[in-house]
Amino acid sequence: MDDKTLSDSDIPEDPALGSDQDSSALEAQPLPEAEEGEPTSLAEVDEASSEGEESEPAPSAEVNDASQEGEEGEASRSTEATKASPECEEDTDAAPEDTDAAPEGTGREWKPVAIPRWARFPMSAQAGWIATLVTTLLAALIRLPGLGTIKTLVFDETYYVKDAYSLMTLGYEGSWAKDNDPMFISGDYSGLSTNGGYVVHPSVGKWLISLGMRVFGASNPVGWRISAAIAGIILVFLTARIAQHLFRSPAITALAGFFMATDGIAIVLSRTGLLDVFLAMFAAAAFLAVLKDQEISHPRLVEKLSQWKPDPDNPSRIGPHAGARWWLLVAGILCGLAMSVKWSGLYALAVLGLFVAFRDWMTRRRFGHPRAFYATLINDTSVAFLAMVPPAVITYVTSWFGWFRHWNAYGHKTHGFIGAFHDLWDYHVGMLKFHTGLTTPHTYQAHPAQWFVQARPTSFAWNKIADASCDKSDCVNAVVALGNPLLWWFAAIAFFIVLFVTLRDRNWRTGFVVCGYLAMYFPWYLNANRTIFNFYTIAFVPFVCLSAAWVIGLMLDQTRCEVDPDRMYDSQPLEEGDYRWMGANVVTRQRFAIGAVVIVLLITAVSIFFMPLWRGDLISYNFWHIHMWFPTWI
């Protein structure tokens, strides 16, 4: 299969058509569909589809001519209304009159079939915003109430919450007396020493935790966790916006946001004073910033390349560039903040940079650039590097401002500006040795392969409570960092479908979801033998939800494998004729849709079933026990 356009910005709407005309006017043949208000049976739709298979659609010469004339008149159009690319012209000129034929090299055939009425969900940008805000509100309703139910420091809160208090009072992480948790909870902070404490994570996440403690008090459990709850709510918002920008389908946006709002890992980490939810928030924001860059820079690059002609007398010319890329600067700062929470944010910076470079290179190749790789390296990669890497490094170093200001902080050996940087370097060498050499066995440690299907969740809290409401069973407050098992099992399958579509169809949008796994999940296999835990998955839960939502959207007829969801970077309605949706008739598509609805209902039911264990509600021992489906969950 030849390289083909993977961006709708390369395949614009026909300029000759009015903006209010249906995009189906671009199709070569009117599609079999009932008149408005006329009842349509499945048999009639199937018969119409069969007639479409037997008859040959008429060529659309007039539309092609109009498109070519529109291209000549639109040279000065702004980058938001994108011009057609050379590939689009080649496809128009070389397209056979038989539109039933499969694309060259695919070896498959599909026929135009009508979009069923049940698949006509709203497709506007406003609907996407409504889906985003509704799921964000749902996330807030789940995360905010009852933050103080668990009144003890759970799991690694014993480190991060106390470090946050130290930052709030000393300006750096001091050292604490051993077994000081009961005193800290009671409001006795005498166990804090001004001697620098050895910490192995940067301080941005702990500074954010301290903000909540300033507002609600250092001894209030709500103060320990409110910042994480807000970050978790923002993470749902970001996930929904990534879905909308990628797939232009409010239905998929709603699914991704809903899955994120109701998943167990996302809920537990949003209600616990740990660092990982802040890492996930900044990383997801960086991914969204790169998407915003692609919406602006890619159409601009396509327009410039469509007007540029190589000079045979001067082959050293490398052609145009995409211009200023301010969203990449934002992405670099956000990656720096992610790294300033935990070092694994570095992988987000690396993968996003490679994604930007690869897509720019493929764009130049599709335009037949004689020196595509070299031009990408000089014009695009260099700009992306300067926009992302130095800001990330500066942001990361700046996050150590508390350490620089206080000579009592751990690791200071020499005075002076240069000496401080030398000490910081030595400190980081020690931190790296700690992270790579941490092999102390732990009851709840889990291999990354187990994360993929939630085989070994982490028990955060288990407190027996004397309460007569539990009858003959003991009452407990239990918190289990376990993702919705049905969602994660379905998403494990969905990931391979998304990966297959990315590789087969060169779909950059599904490939962007794969990049999320490459950045936030697969690097853990490089050091899988160290002591690591299932709750680290919060960093790539957004992409788990995006994978599941996209596949369900495919089953609901809301997205395409080979055709982008819109022809420009504006929301467009689905075409009335779909040549690409698995070549299936309406009956088959309806069965897929029913299956999708059943899957969503089951995932929802499982979320409701496990919600008390994710929120730390008071439950009976027997109720807790029926949730432990496998021995490895206990």
Describe the structure.
The protein has 634 residues and is mainly α. The protein is 54% helix and 5% strand. It contains 22 helices and 7 strands. The chain has helices spanning 42-54, 61-73, 86-94, 125-143, 157-170, 181-185, 204-216, 221-247, 250-262, 264-270, 276-307, 326-339, 345-366, 372-398, 401-405, 417-437, 448-451, 485-505, 508-520, 541-555, 586-615, 621-625; strands at 113-114, 174-176, 192-196, 458-465, 475-481, 577-578, 618-620. A 3-stranded antiparallel beta sheet has the order 4-5-7. The model is unreliable at 1-113 and 566-580 (pLDDT under 50).
Number of helices, counting only DSSP H or I runs of 4 residues or more: 22
The proportion of residues in beta strands is under 5%
Largest sheet: 3 strands, antiparallel
- Secondary structure: number of strands: 7
- What helical percentage do the residues reach? 40-55%
Strand order of the largest sheet: 4-5-7
**If you compute it from the alpha carbons, what radius of gyration comes out, rounded to the nearest whole angstrom?**
27 Å
Mean pLDDT: 79
> Low-confidence parts lasting 5 or more residues at pLDDT below 50?
1-113, 566-580
In whole angstroms, how far apart are the ends?
50 Å
Shape: globular
Strand/helix succession: HHHEHHEHEHHHHHHHHHHHEEHHHEHEH
Assembly classification: single chain
Global structural class: mainly alpha
